[in-house]
Amino acid sequence: MKVLDEAFSKTKAQGSSTACIITLQEGNMLHAVNVGDSRFMVIRRVEIIYKSPIQLHSFNFPYQLGNSANCAKPRQAQVIKVRVAAGDVIIAGTDGLFDNLFELQILATASKGIEQDLGAEEMVWEMAQLAYQPSRDKAAVTPFTEASKRAGRFRDGGKGDDITVIVSRILGA
Fold first, then answer.
1. DSSP label at 11?
2. Residue 89: which domain range?
3. Parallel/antiparallel/unpaired status of strands 39-44 and 78-83
4. What is the DSSP letter of 37?
5. How many domains, in total, are found in the chain?
6. 3-45, pLDDT tens digit by residue?
7. 80-108 pLDDT, tens per residue?
8. What contacts 80, CB < 8 A, 6 or more positions away?
9. Distance (Å, rounded) from C-alpha 152 to C-alpha 168?
């Protein structure tokens, strides 16, 4: 939380952003602060053992940190602790990842990477490419299209957006 508070207090630029900050402390405890619809999941072998919640005002309107009156402040961040173990994989990303790939697609890609002993960079590249394809497809069925239907918006196709993916593996805990 200290990192988020300090960064926020030093930011003078106009605009807004989501934030997902994750640290590994005490050997086996992930500490995270999250604002908005960037998020992370922890994968153990072939199972998602944790997924961070998102913060939305309404459909496609995430909390965002910023200096204007309508923006979120660091005190509104979710504070999260998750116990991890050696071999766990952490996938963090922006909504461009999670709006275009279903959790099972992310899990399958991570599990394949674990099985093939791929490095984090290779897993990032694979997930980013997988998310990019439906983001450009006007007929793709994605988590975003399903969320739009639940919200009564009925939007077809993927969501063109920034796609940020970070993959980390816990080596020893």
1. -
2. 2-169
3. unpaired
4. S
5. 1
6. 898 988 888 888 999 999 999 998 899 999 999 999 999 999 8
7. 999 999 999 999 999 999 999 999 999 99
8. 30, 31, 32, 33, 34, 52
9. 36
Amino acid 68: pLDDT: 87
| Residue of 6, 4, 157 lying closest to 78 (CA atoms) | 4
Report d(CA 89, CA 99) in Å as an integer: 20
Smallest Cα–Cα separation from 120: which of 89, 97, 98? 89
Residues 47 and 58: their CA atoms lie apart, in Å, by: 29
Q: Cα(53)–Cα(35) distance, rounded to whole angstroms? A: 10
What is the domain-level CATH number for residue 155?
A: 3.60.40.10
Query: CB–CB of 117/105 below 8 Å?
Result: no
How many angstroms separate the CA atoms of 74 and 34, rounded? 9
Long-range contacts (CB closer than 8 Å, 24 or more residues apart) made by 149-157: 150/59, 151/58, 151/59, 151/60, 153/59, 153/60
Asked if 37 and 54 touch (Cβ cutoff 8 Å), the reply is yes
Per-residue confidence at 173, pLDDT binned at 50, 70, 90? low
Asked if 104 and 91 count as a contact pair (C-beta separation under 8 A), the reply is no
pLDDT confidence of residue 7: 87
